[in-house]
Design goal:
Layout (H helix, E strand, L loop, with lengths): L14 H14 L12 E12 L6 H11 L4 E8 L3 H7 L6 E5 L7 E8 L4 E8 L27 E7 L2 E9 L8 H27 L8 E6 L10 H7 L23 E5 L7 E7 L8 H6 L1 H11 L6 E6 L2
Amino acid sequence: MPSFPKPKFEFEYEAGTEIKRLRKYRDTKPGRLIPPRDKSRLLVASWNVANLGEQKRRDPDYKLIAEIIRWFDLVAVQEIKENLSGLDGIRAHLPKAYKALYSDAAGNNERMAFLYDSRKVGVLEEVGEIALPVSEYPRIKLEGVDQEFKGFDRSPYFAAFQSGKFQFNLASVHLYFGKFKNKQEAKRSMDRRALETYAVATWAADRRRSKHTSIKDIIALGDFNLPKMEPDDPIYKALTRKGLLLPKHTSQVGSNLEGDMYYDQIGFFKEETVEFTGNINVFDFDGAVFPALWELDPKKFRTFVKYYLSDHRPIWCEFKID
């Protein structure tokens, strides 16, 4: 997506103070608790960090982003630009045991990455991008959608991991959003997004059934640009049509800053991923940070947060690994 405009005002903050606010909010705000990391459970998260490497973040900003990431064992990060300075800025504030895998730049000059604690999570042999063969494109069709599937704007990125006894394939996505200047353009954009979504669901279902796939636990997560968690939403229908479960999270807040969209999701096949503990949530970090700026001007607050942190909130879930 295009970069957000840099705020035209100054607001200084002390990272240590804001980190304390984040931790207090996490531990005391009803419905926001993130379990402490332990050896019997795996915490997996996904976070679209807006235009990472393009928007001019400062060291304190990277400290705040890294603080949230280090609460989890494995994090899929979307919207990393070809310039890796932003990813490097985050990694500078993570423990040395946190390693990274990242893709090549694709649509909108964006990469995707996995950040993981190598003391607890191991990478298995298979890593790559999801690219359906052209011969499979005709299978990707939906009722009411006239246009043809022509591939992903940003190819999903996946890797096989193991933590304890839990082996799984993790597919990170950032699906097409589109343009909405008029009804015709909006329809084309939503149809293309629905086709991309259905392609992910089809890939996951095919992989689950394949006799050549030894790991049947397939987790698709990331920015699906899903507007609503409702059965009649076209993106929701496309994503769940092949059997992927999208568990409802505790807080029921949206994953965008406005809290009214459910863009970011985590989905899996419940028959396979029995390790899921039932814990899943969105962490609305913006409810904790920069209270003085919020009280001064909510509009300036949102402008500041979108540029220096992100316009998306992280989503996370928990799995048993022992």
